[in-house]
UniProtKB/TrEMBL annotation:
<feature type="domain" description="Class II Histidinyl-tRNA synthetase (HisRS)-like catalytic core">
    <location>
        <begin position="3"/>
        <end position="167"/>
    </location>
</feature>
<feature type="binding site">
    <location>
        <position position="89"/>
    </location>
    <ligand>
        <name>L-histidine</name>
    </ligand>
</feature>
<feature type="binding site">
    <location>
        <position position="107"/>
    </location>
    <ligand>
        <name>L-histidine</name>
    </ligand>
</feature>
<feature type="binding site">
    <location>
        <position position="103"/>
    </location>
    <ligand>
        <name>L-histidine</name>
    </ligand>
</feature>
<protein>
    <submittedName>
        <fullName>ATP phosphoribosyltransferase regulatory subunit</fullName>
        <ecNumber>2.4.2.17</ecNumber>
    </submittedName>
</protein>
<dbReference type="InterPro" id="IPR045864">
    <property type="entry name" value="aa-tRNA-synth_II/BPL/LPL"/>
</dbReference>
<feature type="domain" description="Class II Histidinyl-tRNA synthetase (HisRS)-like catalytic core">
    <location>
        <begin position="210"/>
        <end position="334"/>
    </location>
</feature>
<dbReference type="GO" id="GO:0004821">
    <property type="term" value="F:histidine-tRNA ligase activity"/>
</dbReference>
<feature type="binding site">
    <location>
        <begin position="62"/>
        <end position="64"/>
    </location>
    <ligand>
        <name>L-histidine</name>
    </ligand>
</feature>
<dbReference type="InterPro" id="IPR041715">
    <property type="entry name" value="HisRS-like_core"/>
</dbReference>
<dbReference type="GO" id="GO:0006427">
    <property type="term" value="P:histidyl-tRNA aminoacylation"/>
</dbReference>
<feature type="binding site">
    <location>
        <position position="287"/>
    </location>
    <ligand>
        <name>L-histidine</name>
    </ligand>
</feature>
<dbReference type="GO" id="GO:0005737">
    <property type="term" value="C:cytoplasm"/>
</dbReference>
<dbReference type="InterPro" id="IPR004516">
    <property type="entry name" value="HisRS/HisZ"/>
</dbReference>
<feature type="binding site">
    <location>
        <begin position="292"/>
        <end position="293"/>
    </location>
    <ligand>
        <name>L-histidine</name>
    </ligand>
</feature>
<dbReference type="GO" id="GO:0003879">
    <property type="term" value="F:ATP phosphoribosyltransferase activity"/>
</dbReference>
<keyword id="KW-0808">Transferase</keyword>
Amino acid sequence: MDRVRQQTERLSALFRDAGAVPVETSVLQPADTLLDLYGEDIRARAYVTSDPVLGEQMLRPDFTVPVVQRHMADGAEPARYTYQGLVFRKQEAGTGRASEYLQVGYEVFDRSDPASADAEVFALFAEALQGAPVQAETGDIGVLIAAVAGLSTTERRRAALLRHLWRPGRFRALLERFSQALTRVIPSVRAEVPEIGMRSVAEVEARLVALREDAQTAPLDAVELRALQAVLEVSDMAPIALAQLREIAQDLPAIKPALDRFEARLAALAKRGVDVDALPFSGTYGRTTMEYYDGFVFGFHAGNPVPVATGGRYDALTRVLGQGREIPAVGGVIRPELLEALL
């Protein structure tokens, strides 16, 4: 444990030397904020308790949300923060994963040059992990979001796909459903039917109206659907992946601005000494574990399911928690006990 503590302090010192201000957050976090962000799914992964004064609370499942809240309330711009401490996540029996573990993090809030900030965080994490037998992985949730947002279908269908972006099975099922012509008949609610359960007759009827509208919507454009599926299948070194995505953009031009940001990021990474020609990229990376990221995502892995470090861009989170304000933000966390075990 002493060596893990030494590793924790080394990482914290590295992040402080990079200009980060140390911050602390409460172990107990308001549950309503996290439920608003993640939905009820978070209950299956977090430890929830009830306080007679504070109301429903959760043992801190991560640091990013409270750090963003703190910055959006009174933070200067630009800003860099670092933190260390325990986070708590329920684990399934037999996985061997710890339910509480240390994280050391680094977060950047800077609107001047997002590509440079992405490169700064990634390069700093690569430096922190130097000497460890880890392999970097990268992706870009922003490309996938742009691809879905650019589909020529209804706003309702685009919203449904975006809502399930981080649930690949459900996302795939929706794509299959939306690619077919629907012929089912949706009945109306009879006025004399008694109200049973939590929903009113008006709420049920509103849902049925939505289902009728969806049933009358044309299937997804076949060319756009193939392009979206091609985005998910891209997997190569980053410059080659970018070239492949440029080809796909001919059929799905909505992703072009995201690809321009991808290209700017590669240039910024190269400027910081990262060998981008040997940097893996996957169109699906980050979709199952990085729910609040909406741009560049990365991780450092050592051959096991639990990454030693993860991070990415989460601009939309600052907009949700900023009460009318927003700022581009990127950051990540390292698990010092996993790093120490590798070293």
